[in-house]
């Protein structure tokens, strides 16, 4: 391209819209197996821990792939990485649809490992989170990042709750196999929407157009870009890993975003088996929890812009610790649902606060920090469900409630570490 012919493609609003829509479709995989766990468990004869591992499978790649792909934004701007992850998710869903159409329900013996593998592949769409966080951070000025990232994370992750209800409805209307084919078609549509709408931040467009590093930074700054990458993927990960607050944010995000993913996948099983509710009823309650936890990132981001991320995080963790402990009380499903709403609000506010704090503490390597925080933090979505299933295996009567004490304990530990690592250090 002739430098004289350069014209910026896109705006911050367009970039935010593309990233949010792309992540909205990619994040649906969080609920890929939760609503169908009971049917798959019956078909394959699974134990409670195997069920927990099954519902968590998409979160394995959805979390760990956030690390390299988040850091890759500092090199390629993000669009290429986002498209690769969406394509992988589509391939996984196509594989599951074909498998279920030929083997479900009576010929599923010995296919547990293959279902896990395809679920992990479908979960790649969840990993678009760290890519989108970095893209949005590079497009927006620091004073507006809390709100922008709240919109991205809040509206994007709402899809997991929508699918928690939508999949049982599809199952009832079209049957098991066609429900997954329809889900595959929706994912393909989402991948195409992002492909045609997305745009990298000004610095990356200028650099790709042939401008020098100095010219790209200077012109991008004139266009409103305030954050710039520090180097290649390795440098981005190394620089961010050398900042202590990165690891404090990882731990905090592990508790609340990992918890959000885990409970979105686990609640359909919880409401059906622990409270005896019907699948669609369980889907409605799970949807409310998941959507609320997601959209609360928007006001959470606004409050974090005004009060600071650290204060919002401490308040949210306190509420989460108390509410998760209350899940052990004999309140009936209505009372426990009310408690789950408090957990959703607390998780959403803390997740927004953590995203606000990334560009505050790791200004020179937002992509790398987003990868570490988004990847290892979201890894909780893979770790927690098998542990929750193990509590149930240990005590079918009390195990469902005991599992929530994991989040209480972790929230308390997070507050202690953050106090000494952020408040006292500051």
UniProtKB/TrEMBL annotation:
- Bilayer-crossing residues are 49-69, 81-100, 112-134, 146-172, 178-197, 247-267, 279-298, 310-329, 335-354, 366-388, 400-420
Topologically, how does it sit relative to the membrane?
A: Multi-pass membrane protein
Q: Which domain of life is it from?
A: Bacteria
Species of the source:
Mesosutterella faecium
Regarding protein family, the annotation reads:
Belongs to the major facilitator superfamily. Nitrate/nitrite porter (TC 2.A.1.8) family.
Q: Which UniProt keywords apply?
A: Membrane, Nitrate assimilation, Transmembrane, Transmembrane helix
Major facilitator superfamily (MFS) profile domain boundaries:
15-426
Pfam short name (any one): MFS_1
Assign the protein's first listed, main location to one coarse class: membrane
What does the UniProt entry say about where the protein is found?
Answer: Membrane
Q: What is this protein called?
A: MFS transporter
């Amino acid at each position: 391209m002739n430098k004289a012919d350069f014209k910026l493609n896109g705006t911050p609003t367009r970039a935010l819209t593309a990233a949010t829509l792309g992540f909205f479709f990619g994040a649906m995989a969080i609920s890929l197996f939760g609503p169908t766990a009971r049917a798959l468990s019956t078909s394959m004869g699974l134990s409670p821990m195997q069920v927990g591992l099954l519902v968590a499978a998409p979160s394995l790649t959805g979390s760990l792939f956030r690390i390299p792909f988040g850091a890759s934004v500092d090199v390629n701007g993000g669009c290429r990485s986002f498209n690769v992850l969406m394509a992988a998710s589509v391939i996984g869903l196509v594989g599951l649809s074909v498998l279920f159409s030929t083997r479900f329900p009576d010929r599923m013996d010995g296919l547990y490992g293959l279902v896990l593998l395809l679920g992990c592949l479908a979960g790649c769409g969840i990993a678009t989170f760290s890519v989108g966080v970095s893209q949005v951070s590079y497009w927006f000025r620091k004073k507006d990042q809390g709100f922008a990232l709240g919109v991205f994370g809040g509206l994007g992750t709402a899809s997991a709750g929508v699918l928690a209800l939508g999949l049982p409805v599809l199952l009832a209307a079209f049957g098991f196999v066609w429900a997954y084919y329809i889900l595959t078609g929706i994912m393909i549509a989402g991948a195409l929407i992002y492909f045609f709408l997305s745009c990298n931040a000004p610095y990356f467009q200028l650099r790709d157009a042939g401008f020098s590093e100095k010219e790209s930074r200077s012109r991008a700054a004139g266009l409103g870009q305030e954050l710039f990458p520090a180097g290649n993927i390795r440098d981005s990960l190394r620089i961010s890993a050398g900042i202590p607050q990165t690891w404090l944010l990882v731990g905090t995000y592990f508790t609340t975003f990992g918890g959000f993913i885990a409970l979105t996948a686990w609640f359909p099983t919880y409401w059906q088996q622990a409270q005896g509710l019907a699948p669609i009823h369980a889907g409605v309650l799970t949807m409310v929890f998941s959507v609320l936890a997601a959209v609360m990132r928007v006001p959470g981001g606004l409050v974090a812009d005004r009060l600071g991320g650290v204060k919002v995080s401490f308040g949210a963790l306190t509420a989460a610790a108390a509410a998760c402990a209350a899940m052990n009380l004999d309140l009936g499903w209505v009372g426990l649902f009310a408690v789950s709403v408090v957990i959703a609000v607390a998780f959403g506010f803390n997740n927004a606060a953590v995203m606000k704090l990334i560009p505050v503490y790791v200004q020179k390597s937002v992509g790398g920090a987003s990868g570490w925080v988004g990847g290892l933090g979201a890894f909780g979505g893979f770790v927690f469900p098998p542990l929750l299933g193990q509590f149930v295996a240990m005590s079918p009567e009390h195990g469902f409630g005991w599992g929530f004490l994991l989040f209480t304990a972790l929230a308390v530990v997070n507050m202690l570490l953050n106090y000494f690592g952020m408040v006292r250090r500051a």
